[in-house]
From TrEMBL:
It comes from the Bacteria. This is Amidohydrolase family protein. The lineage of its organism: Bacteria, Pseudomonadati, Pseudomonadota, Alphaproteobacteria, Sphingomonadales. Residues 1-22 form the signal peptide. PROSITE patterns: PROKAR_LIPOPROTEIN. It comes from Stakelama flava. It holds the Pfam family Amidohydro_1. Keywords: Signal. Residues 81-454 form the Amidohydrolase-related domain.
Length: 461
């Protein structure tokens, strides 16, 4: 749910306490994580007292911790939990800076690098950027993947497409113009009509590139029929997705309620149990179309000023630039009344119920934050998203699956998301069991990326 101003838009190995041998200084040396509980990203029971061997940036083997220990740097994993590195499926790579009025949009590369480095500190070893300035954004993606910038590895879309005046020929040319920069995705946005969405999907698929949809004028149901590959956010906020009897009231709310107030009216009128929604869930599940639900994008944006989880988050201290920009340019609830906040709080459980419905219906749900949007703190935001998913009724194992094997399936990658032999050694070691409380995903001892330990300990505010 990008804010309106978006428009068209390892390092050296860290020596670890608990190692019985000297830490390796090159990626080819073996690392043995011994007597550890492996939570492999599939959401099943843990592999207790396991031995994980890493060499040349890959997981070589996972076996019971018995017999002779292989030669290498040994990390004592007793009482600890090894997970695949977390994947944020909705993290925009470049931060736009505050440009009040109609000033030109500018992106802050230094701030973006700082945020991406913090993502890695929080155990996030891969991100998907679903809308990225084509030239500078895809350059940052390449720098991350080459190790020239500290941060997660990244996949990224070209700049989003949102101009409803564009012709079919113009839309196809936009796709072709981006091809030299090798985008991993294209993204169609809220204003596009169904025939325009269809054109972008067709042209992108001609070149083997999937399409992400932040849809609104085109409904999710229409997007699915047109061949969309991925959907962003929890709902489409489309008038046509409401019960027919509720549509006139919502249209009236759009005319009379400024900003995001009408979203409350939409959610109040939405029926998660309606026949159309049941059919949509079945189609999403059958076609394995991923949905990154980004609950934090709504919860943070619509939080009252005195809500401590977001505006008073201590991790925001490291990013004074963001607080400045969000208070100056992006406070979309600045004119909300106490009654607006009350209505949002009352309607919020319906959004959670919809998430549960999709999960129960077999939809490929993945975890994402919509980072760069207001009150989503880099790194910390994904752990808050996990907590919101738990509040919505998902179990810790189900949430870990969203950021593990579900993300790998959505990315069509067989090298990430699961702790198994042959995959990249993108790993997080925790001191507390996240199955007991999803908040324990913050109990980071170290973060490993490509077989190298690149971060140690939970970041401090």
């Amino acid at each position: 749910m990008m804010a309106p101003r978006f428009g068209l838009l390892i390092l050296a190995l860290v020596a670890m306490s608990g190692c019985t041998n000297k830490s390796p200084t090159v990626a080819s040396a073996a690392t043995v994580i011994d007597h550890v509980t492996v939570l492999d990203g599939r959401g099943g029971p843990g592999n207790v007292d396991a031995r994980v061997v890493v060499r040349d940036g890959r997981i070589v083997s996972i076996a019971p911790a018995s017999g002779a220990v292989p030669e290498g740097a040994v990390i004592d994993g007793r009482g600890k939990f090894l997970l695949p590195g977390f994947i944020d499926m909705h993290a925009h790579l470049l931060f736009p800076r505050c440009t009040p009025g109609d000033g030109p949009l500018s992106f802050d590369r230094a701030l973006s690098e700082k945020a991406l480095s913090r993502e890695l500190d929080f155990g996030i070893t891969m991100v998907r950027s679903p809308a990225t300035p084509t030239i500078e954004g895809l350059k940052l993606r390449d720098d991350l993947n080459a190790g020239r910038v500290r941060g997660p590895r990244a996949l990224a879309s070209a700049e989003l497409i949102n101009d409803q005046t564009l012709s079919e020929a113009q839309l196809r040319q936009i796709v072709r113009n981006a091809l030299p920069f090798r985008p991993d995705y294209f993204k169609v946005y809220a204003r596009l009509r169904p025939e325009q969405v269809a054109t972008v999907i067709d042209e992108a698929h001609r070149h083997g590139i999937p399409v992400i949809g932040h849809l609104q004028r085109t409904t999710w149901t229409q997007g699915v029929a047109l061949g969309i590959d991925h959907l962003a956010h929890s709902v489409d906020w489309s008038t046509d997705s409401l019960p027919e009897s509720a549509r006139p009231g919502y249209v009236e709310a759009l005319k009379n309620r400024r900003g995001f107030r009408a979203r409350i009216d939409w959610l109040e009128a939405f029926d998660p149990d309606g026949a159309g929604q049941r059919e949509l869930i079945a189609a999403l599940a059958r076609k394995r179309i991923s949905v990154d639900v980004t609950l934090i994008a709504y919860d943070g944006k619509f939080s009252p000023p005195d809500e401590p989880r977001y505006r008073q988050n201590p991790y925001l201290r490291a990013f004074p630039e963001l607080r400045h920009d969000w208070e100056r340019c992006d406070d979309v609830t600045a004119e909300w009344t106490p009654d607006d906040y009350r209505r949002w709080k009352a309607a919020r459980p319906k959004l959670f119920a919809w998430i549960r419905k999709m999960h129960e219906g077999g939809v490929l749900l993945v975890s994402g934050t919509d980072m760069t949007n207001e009150w989503i703190v880099p790194g910390e935001g994904l752990h808050q998203e996990f907590e919101l998913l738990a509040e919505a009724g998902l179990t810790p194992n189900q949430i870990l699956r969203m950021t593990g094997t579900n993300a790998a399936e959505a990315l069509k990658r067989d090298d990430v998301g699961i702790v198994e032999a042959g995959r990249r050694a993108d790993l997080v070691l925790l001191s507390k069991d996240p199955r007991k409380s999803i908040s324990n995903t913050r109990s980071i001892i170290w973060v490993m990326q490509g077989g190298r330990i690149v971060g140690r300990g939970r970041p401090r505010p």
